Amino acid sequence: MQTFTFENTDTAAFHGVWVYCEQRRGALMSTDLELISEGRKLADELHTELCGVLLGDGVAALAPQLAGYGADKIYVCESPLLHDYTTDAHAKLICDLVAEYKPEILLFGATNIGRDLAPRCAARLHTGLCADCTHLDVDVASYVEFLRANSTLDEKGIGEEGLHQRFESDLKMTRPAFGGHLMATIVCPRFRPAMATVRPGVMQRAAFDEARAAAVQIVRPTFSLAAEDIQTEVLEVVKAAREMVDLLGADVVVSVGRGIAADVEKGIALGQELADVLGGVLGGSRVSVDSGWLSADHQVGQTGKTVHPKIYIALGISGAIQHKAGMQESGCIIAVNKNPAAPIFEIADYGIAGDLFKVVPMMIEQFRAAREAKASVG
Does residue 330 fall inside a structural domain? Predict the structure, then answer.
């Protein structure tokens, strides 16, 4: 195995935004399309190109889909040795490509594979990695607007005299810290590429551009990969059948919070019944998960999942900034809370100040009656 050498301190020599496009069995992950869409924004801010990196066996046909969401070109490496994901093979090829083409930003999805692969690449490239990001910026003005909307910093601290001006062209990577109680923004000013894993669901997918997809530019770089480079062998891939809550794909999410504490079992049952009537799924705040009322796959918020359903119903959720960050982009937000001054009402389209144990049964009755009436007409 050859020794890998890489000079990463001449930051001016690095250009371009790259996205590692994860595919499994010839199918792209939804996170790829979110990252390509976000990468397009970053590339435009830097006045540079956006490239996808696609590794696998017979995967070139996926390139137009990535281009349709904003990529200028797709680097495609195909080999039977890449048929199944292995850390050794993917890390070697990505690092070799980075050493040759020198991108200034490299993004991964914070999936199981992304969380395995990105740290290995960062260590080999001797650069920094910000994990589990929920927001990315390069442009200072855009970053300042983000701070004003999502932080309690004094205006003077984020104005033109702010320290962030020192990192004007650096990628500003924001992630939850201290269990989601703080948001930290991290920069990597001395080394390239700046690397980040991005939480699935937090970035908005752009509209698909058929013309861009049709004009996809595929680059097939020369690469070296031998069986000796791979220290593991995949004998079989077995998918585990486990029922999971699909918060990201749901059109309706009904979430419960601290307000169900008086009768947890009844509160969860009401939330689930309301979700069932509306054809949605049950979610929860961090309190409901930390208290053991719901499993972690139900959690909505900065330390859970970021959702964008057509309808989001918050039952007994006060609306801490960590929770709002995970659902405030929903199409329609309905909140039920006994406290009329609860922060959740600040972003709710419809708010009901009342006891959820009394209000929700009435909501269920009305929604069920409306659904039955619609069915009878149809």
Answer: yes
